[in-house]
Amino acid sequence: MTKHRPSATAAFAAAAEARALAQQGNAVDAEARIRDARTIYDRMPPSPDDDAFGFPWRRFLLYLSGTYTALGQGSRARKVQEEALALYPARTGIDPTLLRLEAAICLAHERSATEACQLAAQTYLQVPEDHRTPIIGARARRVIEELPGVNGRTRAAMELRELLELPDGSM
Question: From CA 3, how far away is CA 40, in angstroms rounded?
Fold first, then answer.
């Protein structure tokens, strides 16, 4: 385990493990790894935001957002999403896109189907077509998957599903 060495790699590993545990539904261990990740992060030397091998605070918040979203803790997720988005001045790129899609997933958990699907569609369309990676498509589809009950058949959900099924180059 890396929790005794305060490095970007150790903080990243703990944060990634917390998110994975949350996605598996293991809330107790996910919370413990969040605490470990935070302790490691607080002890490591700061890294510049543009360091490709670093783990800046905004990236740490991205992983916390994913963990809290997977745990169904919408208010905690929204708090870190807002803080992280404020640290991305241009608000473009994959991380801000993933943060907004996680916000849409939180809305889906809260049964705000129309708002969730509209946010996901808007976010997806803001990404240039040649930058729409499989992870972005999967995260947008997850919004629909997370809608409880008949909410997955609302007009907004059907429109999002149709958008995501369009072939490349058709927009």
Answer: 6
Please name the residue that has the structure tokens 């509209």.
118
Q: Is the dihedral of CA 69, 76, 118, 99 positive or negative?
A: negative
> Two tokens at 100?
């907004």
Query: Which residues 6+ apart lie within 8 Å of 166 measured at CB?
Result: none
Report the sign of the C-alpha dihedral through residues 56, 59, 65, 70, in that order. negative
Kindly give the residue spans of alpha helices, DSSP state H, lying in the chain: 8-23, 27-43, 57-70, 74-86, 94-109, 113-126, 134-145, 155-165
Q: Is the pLDDT of residue 50 over 80?
A: no
Q: Are 107 and 146 in contact (CB under 8 A)?
A: no
Q: What angle do CA 135, 78, 70 make, to 5 degrees?
A: 50
Q: What is the mean pLDDT of residues 142-149?
A: 93
Write out pLDDT tens, residues 67-103.
999 999 999 999 999 999 999 888 778 999 999 999 9
